[in-house]
Amino acid sequence: DKSGATITALDIDNGYIIPTFKALENHEQHVLSMPTWNAENDDILICAYPKSGTHWLWEVTCMLLKGKAERIKRVKEDVMIEGMTKDRYEKEPVPRVFNTHILFKYLPEDFRKKRCKILYVLRNPKDVAVSYYNHHSKIREYEYDGKWEPYLDRYIEGNVDYGSWFDYTVDWERVMKEDPEYPVHMMYYEDMKENGMREIQRLAKFLEVDRDEKFIREVDELCQFDRMKKDKDKIENADEWKNGQPGMYRKGQVGDWKNWFTVSQSEKFDVIYDEKMKNSNVKIRFTI
Ligand code: A3P
Questions:
Q1: What CATH number has the domain bearing residue 241?
Q2: Ligand 1 neighbourhood includes 51 CB (under 6 angstroms)
C-alpha cells in the first residue's frame, strides 16, 4: 500500500510525527519531552487507541466533573497531550481532563507519581479499523487515498500513526499488571452503547463525583451519538476534511465492520486476533 506516505508507524525513539499535529513546532522534541512535564493531583487522563470513543468519554467525563455547562465548548483535540504545547498544557484550568493515544511510558512520569486517575477506553478492533480507515482517508493532512483492503493489512501490521491496536492493548494490560493498585478504570465502547446509564454511574463512582440519577440520565441523553454529532459538527474544523464535512462523528455503531470486512477478511482477522491476544484478559465484544 504505497499511498498515504504521511501515515507512518509510531516510532517515538527514532523520529515521529503525527500528521494532524505537524503544525506544532518541534513536534518530535515536544513528544520526547513529555515525560518531564508536571501533573496536578486531580488530573484525569483518558487513554485509548484512536477511534475507540475518546471524544465521547471525554465529553461524559467533563460533564460529570464540571457540570453540564461544560458541554460542547471544545473539541477533544484541544486537550490531547501530544498535540499541546507545554505552555498550554500548564495553563489548562483545573480540574484537567486530558486525552492521549500515546503509550503510557511516553507520558509525564508525574502522573504515575501522583497516582492520577486514568480512564482507559477500549473498542473492538474491527470497528476501530473501519473508523480509522475513514479517518485516514477523509482527513486532508494524511494525503491518503488507499483502498480498504490494503489499508486493513496496514492497520493489522500497525503501520499507522500510533502503531498497532494489538501492541497498544497488550501494553496497557502489562501496565495494569505491573501496578495493580494504580487507579485505572476500564470502559468498553460496546458497554457504553449497551447501557450508558450503568457505565456512566460506574464512571462517576470511580471519579468520586456525587451526581444523582437525574443528572446521570441527562449526561447519557446529551451524549447520545446523534445529539453529539449535531452539536459537535458545528465546532469541528470542517476544512480538515476532504469533502468539507466534519467526519469525526461518523456512524457511532457497534458492528459496522460487517459492512466492510468480507467473510475471509474477518476470518483472517480472527486468527490474528486469537494469536496476538492469546495471553490477554480483555473482554472484547465484536457485536452486542
Ligand atoms: P465511527 O467512525 O465508527 O462512527 P475517537 O473519539 O476515539 O476518535 O472515536 C471516534 C469514534 O467514536 C467514531 O466511530 C465516532 O463516531 C464514535 N463516537 C463519537 N461520539 C460518539 C457517541 N456519542 N456515541 C457513540 N459513538 C460515538
A1: 3.40.50.300
A2: yes
* Residue 282 within a domain: no
Backbone angles phi, psi at 7, to 5 degrees: -85, 105
pTM (global) more than 0.95:
no
Beta bridge partners of 117: 44
H or E element: which one contains 119? strand 117-122
Cα–Cα dist 240/234, whole Å: 13
In a domain, 120, yes or no: yes
Q: What domain count does the chain have? A: 1
Does the Cβ of 250 fall within 6 Å of ligand 1?
A: yes
29-58 confidence digits (pLDDT tens): 777 788 999 999 999 999 999 999 999 999
pLDDT, tens digit, 9 for 90 and up, residues 150-196:
999 999 998 888 889 999 999 999 999 999 999 999 999 999 999 99
Ligand 1 site, residue 50, Cβ cutoff 6 A:
yes
Q: What is the dihedral of CA 88, 93, 98, 103, to 10 degrees?
A: 50
Atom of ligand 1 nearest to the CA of 48: 7
Burial class of residue 218, CB neighbours in 10 A (0-12, 13-18, 19+)? middle
Question: Is 72 inside a domain boundary?
Answer: yes
Report the separation in Å between the CA atom of 114 and the middle of ligand 1, taken as the mean of its atom positions. Answer: 30
Domain that holds residue 59: 12-276
Pairing of strands 97-100, 184-188: unpaired
Q: Residue 287: inside a domain, yes or no?
A: no
